[in-house]
Design goal:
Layout lengths: L2 H22 L10 H16 L7 E10 L5 E10 L1 H4 L2 H11 L3 H5 L12 E6 L4 E5 L8 H18 L5 E5 L2 E2 L2 E2 L4 E2 L12
Parallel strand pairs: 4-5
Antiparallel strand pairs: 1-2, 3-4, 5-6, 7-8
Helix pairs in contact: 4-6
Length: 197
């Protein structure tokens, strides 16, 4: 074997090695897709379907009680994220959130409620011409007159912030006209002057 043949074999060997490496890296056959690539592409597609972009978050305002900068008691609107596909109407979600009370992090900031523990939402119905909030009898119990006024204003402010319909308060299925043992008169539909008597 002469020198030219040896050189030819060396070059041929190098070309075969380079070809094998390129084939292994998928550079020579760019049209081929490995099984790993398919899995990644499928996952990406599923994520895109599950997480649509540009969906604006919606919120409701729930009124609890806290203090302002002068340490005076005020009604504080707390925003709660709302999902219409899960939570029903804004009014229903807001009233459910109000009755459930402040979250622990809100309590840590001095926010509290006058709505008695044990109060249940019997129903929140929105009809074409009005909305009805029906609460259990527990809503009227305990705390005295001042507490009763505060809890009523919590309901009034929360309801009116989350619907444009006239809102009526019912207790155990009966339209509320007098609330509590102290006999607080209430005019309906609910508004900021409903307790003026």
């Amino acid at each position: 074997m002469d020198g030219k043949q040896k050189l030819f074999l060396v070059i041929l060997g190098m070309v075969l090695v380079v070809a094998a490496v390129l084939y292994g890296l998928n550079i020579m056959n760019p049209g081929e897709i490995s099984p790993d690539d398919v899995t990644v592409n499928e996952r990406t597609t599923e994520e895109e379907i599950q997480k649509p972009e540009n969906i604006e978050k919606e919120y409701v305002n729930v009124f609890f009680i806290g203090q302002n900068e002068n340490r005076e008691e005020v009604y504080k609107a707390v925003k709660r994220e709302y999902d219409p596909d899960i939570d029903g109407t804004k009014l229903k979600f807001a009233i459910d959130s109000l009755i459930a009370g402040p979250k622990p992090n809100e309590r840590d900031k001095g926010v509290y409620t006058e709505i008695p523990a044990g109060t249940n939402v019997i129903a929140v119905r929105e009809l074409p011409d009005k909305a009805i909030i029906d609460l259990s009898m527990d809503f009227e119990t305990g705390g005295g007159t001042d507490s009763l006024y505060k809890r009523l204003y919590q309901v009034i402010k929360t309801a009116n912030r989350n619907t444009n319909l006239p809102v009526y308060l019912y207790i155990d299925g009966q339209k509320a006209e007098v609330i509590g043992g102290e006999g607080i008169m209430i005019t309906q539909p609910l508004n900021d002057r409903s307790l003026d008597g």
